Amino acid sequence: MSTTATLLQSAAGVQIFPLVRGVFSLAAVAALLVFFKPLLVGIARAMLLVVRPRLTKEERLARRQMRDAQMLQNMINASQGPSHAAELRALAARS
């Protein structure tokens, strides 16, 4: 009985309306974020493109070719003899 009385007295000292208003405010902000998520994601992507623009098609092709050439050169350097290097060069000439 004394435990129940203590709980009621401590609960009586808590103001419930500011707590309820805070919970509703938080729920409203969360609902707005969920509702406007596509717009916010689009804005974030646009800001990312401003900071780090996408490479053109030619630049991406040049990077890919440079990476392939470096990989081939590394394979030639790591090969076990002239015949392996010649085979790798022949493969590179075909592509």
Descriptive notes:
With 95 residues, the protein is mainly α. Helix content is 85%, strand content 0%. The chain has five helices and no strands. Helix 4 packs antiparallel against helix 5 (82-94). The longest helix has 22 residues, at 57-78. It is elongated, with a radius of gyration of 33 Å. The model has no long low-confidence stretch (mean pLDDT 83).
Helix content: over 70%
Order of helices and strands: HHHHH
The multimeric state of the shown protein is single chain
The general outline is: elongated
| Residue windows where pLDDT falls under 50 for at least 5 positions | none
SS summary, helix count: 5
How many β strands by DSSP?
A: 0
Distance between the termini: 88 Å
Mean pLDDT: 83
Radius of gyration: 33 Å
> What share of residues are in beta strands?
under 5%
Largest sheet entry: none
- By secondary-structure content and strand pairing, the structural class works out as mainly alpha
